[in-house]
């Protein structure tokens, strides 16, 4: 019987391969039909499906039309140069081929490749791998720092016309001194703290929410340590955690985050506008995005035009400070110790940060977007916006806790409640990286001599029996309280949580039984 396929092997572009993968995942056509349409054997389709993650990564790097992707001789140099290129473009620095080669060779030296010499052919392949095209910068683009806000206002009105409020997101970074308590020192208040000067108990957070407040994306937390002691035995975190030596956002971390969100939105069938500030860690172009379109605010205008800076982040931090004070006061009540050193690990901080972010209400977020000008021209919603009630309530709670803290400690803190809330407001979360910084960001190392500074916390294993017993105590406690909307809500949550723990425990038992059944036969038998 004659073969349906040519003996000549057919090469498909990465773009075509990705479409094949998506067709298979949709299930609208059989694999045999897809093979006939594209003139390939089923074994070729199987190989494509096996390599789907690599193909998606290649497409995200801009290699849609290539049929074969030649790997770099120096992959670490390739990656470091891409980071440098993205940072330079975000600052509107003109870049040519010779400049890329020169920077590539300098980075190679930093990475230990002393004999590395890059050629024009290497440059062509680098540009192909990452979808880079050199264009002459027009006068308008070159003077981007002088863009008038009226141009942004016109762009914003177009965004509001083209996108549903639930699909308009703003994302912004903020620094967090996660163990900070009110103190006598005002060292960092009102100062821009670099990675070298800021307290070691510092992380950077990326916060992102949509315009109608219906969706807050999980926090991205960036710390200094890859494997903090407190993370040992922990498999699920309430935040996404990444690390580098300075606990800063970098272009590679930001690109990874955007591409991950893009895949999520694509699976949901959404088209999303992502509004960002002009920051060296935010590349102006990220290849392969299919659901997200990025829009950048004019430089030096974020204090007026960025929703997160209108109160979203401040409200989050107010709630976080409330939880920190509650934790300290609770510890004081239990032990009676006047030691103002707060025993709190990075794991505690991740849980408290996620809880604080969860408490930021849709009303607060909507209000902040309106204050930033996210209002259609035909409406006057921005005029006389009242403060949101829950924001005032949270600030009042923090003030009461602050006063209680002051009575418990000596000497009393010489800062106001607002100073305490805003203590890390000007902390840097990113900066222009030197070539050495760019190279070191690729090396999975931790700050020398600082590993011991992380709280030496060991989390003991918790069995399902222990967890259920604790939940029973919570349920009993809530049933013993005066009936209220809060107590009823808490009781329902405790009951639901108990059911979840039961389900997880049963799944674990089932998996253990399966593993035991398929374990190797005892050799002594």
UniProtKB/TrEMBL annotation:
Source organism, top-level taxon: Eukaryota
Q: Does the record carry Nucleus as a key word? A: yes
Q: What keywords were assigned to this record?
A: DNA-binding, Nucleus
Q: Where is this region: Disordered?
A: 431-455
Q: Which SMART domains match?
A: CENPB
Cellular component (GO) terms are: nucleus
Coiled-coil regions listed in the entry: none
* Ranges annotated as biased composition (Acidic residues): 445-455
- GO MF terms, alphabetically ordered: DNA binding
Q: Which residues form the HTH CENPB-type domain?
A: 65-136
Question: Where does the protein principally reside?
Answer: nucleus
Compositionally biased tracts (Polar residues)? 431-444
Q: Where in the cell is it found?
A: Nucleus
The UniProt entry, under PANTHER family, shows: TIGGER TRANSPOSABLE ELEMENT-DERIVED PROTEIN 3, TRANSPOSON
Q: What is this protein called?
A: HTH CENPB-type domain-containing protein
Ranked from the top, the taxonomy reads: Eukaryota, Metazoa, Spiralia, Lophotrochozoa, Mollusca
């Amino acid at each position: 019987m004659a073969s349906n396929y040519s003996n000549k092997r057919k090469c498909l572009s990465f773009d075509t391969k990705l479409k094949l993968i998506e067709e298979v995942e949709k299930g609208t056509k059989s694999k045999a039909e897809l093979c006939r349409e594209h003139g390939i054997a089923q074994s070729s389709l199987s190989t494509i499906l096996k390599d789907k993650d690599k193909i998606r990564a290649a497409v995200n790097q801009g290699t849609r039309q290539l049929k074969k992707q030649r790997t770099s001789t120096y992959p670490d140099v390739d990656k470091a140069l891409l980071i440098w290129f993205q940072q330079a473009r975000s600052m509107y620095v003109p870049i040519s081929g010779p400049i890329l080669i020169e920077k590539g060779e300098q980075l190679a030296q930093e990475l230990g490749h002393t004999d590395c010499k890059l050629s024009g052919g290497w440059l062509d392949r680098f540009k192909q791998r990452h979808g880079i095209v050199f264009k002459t910068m027009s006068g308008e683009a070159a003077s981007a720092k002088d863009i008038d806000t009226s141009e942004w206002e016109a762009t914003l009105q177009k965004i509001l016309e083209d996108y549903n409020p639930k699909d308009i997101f703003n994302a912004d970074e903020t620094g967090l001194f996660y163990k900070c308590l009110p103190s006598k020192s005002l060292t960092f208040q009102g100062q821009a703290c670099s990675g070298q000067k800021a307290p070691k108990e510092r992380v950077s957070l990326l916060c992102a929410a949509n315009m109608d407040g219906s969706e807050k994306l999980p926090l991205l937390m960036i710390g200094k340590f890859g494997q903090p002691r407190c993370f040992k035995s922990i498999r699920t975190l309430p935040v996404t955690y990444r690390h580098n030596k300075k606990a800063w956002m970098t272009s590679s971390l930001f690109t990874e985050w955007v591409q991950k969100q893009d895949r999520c939105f694509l699976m949901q069938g959404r088209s999303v506008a992502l509004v960002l500030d002009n920051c060296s860690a935010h590349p102006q172009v990220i290849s392969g995005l299919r659901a997200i379109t990025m829009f950048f605010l004019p430089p030096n205008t974020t204090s007026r035009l960025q929703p997160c800076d209108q109160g979203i982040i401040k409200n989050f931090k107010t709630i976080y400070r409330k939880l920190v004070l509650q934790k300290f006061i609770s510890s004081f009540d239990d032990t009676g110790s006047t030691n103002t050193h707060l025993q709190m690990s990075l794991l505690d901080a991740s849980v408290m940060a996620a809880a604080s972010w969860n408490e930021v209400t849709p009303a607060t977020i909507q209000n902040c977007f309106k204050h930033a000008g996210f209002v259609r021209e035909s409406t006057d919603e921005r005029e006389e916006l009242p403060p949101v009630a829950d924001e005032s309530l949270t600030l009042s709670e923090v003030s009461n806790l602050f006063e209680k803290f002051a009575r418990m400690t000596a000497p009393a803190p010489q800062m106001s409640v607002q100073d305490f809330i805003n203590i890390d407001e000007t902390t840097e979360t990113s900066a222009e990286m030197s070539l050495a910084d760019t190279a070191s960001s690729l090396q999975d190392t931790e700050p020398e001599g600082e590993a011991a500074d992380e709280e030496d916390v060991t989390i003991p294993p918790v069995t399902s029996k222990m967890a259920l017993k604790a939940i029973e105590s919570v349920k009993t406690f809530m049933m013993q309280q005066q009936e209220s909307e809060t107590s009823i809500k808490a009781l329902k949550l405790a009951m639901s949580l108990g059911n979840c723990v039961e389900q997880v425990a049963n799944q674990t038992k089932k998996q253990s039984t399966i593993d035991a059944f398929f374990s190797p036969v005892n050799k002594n038998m």
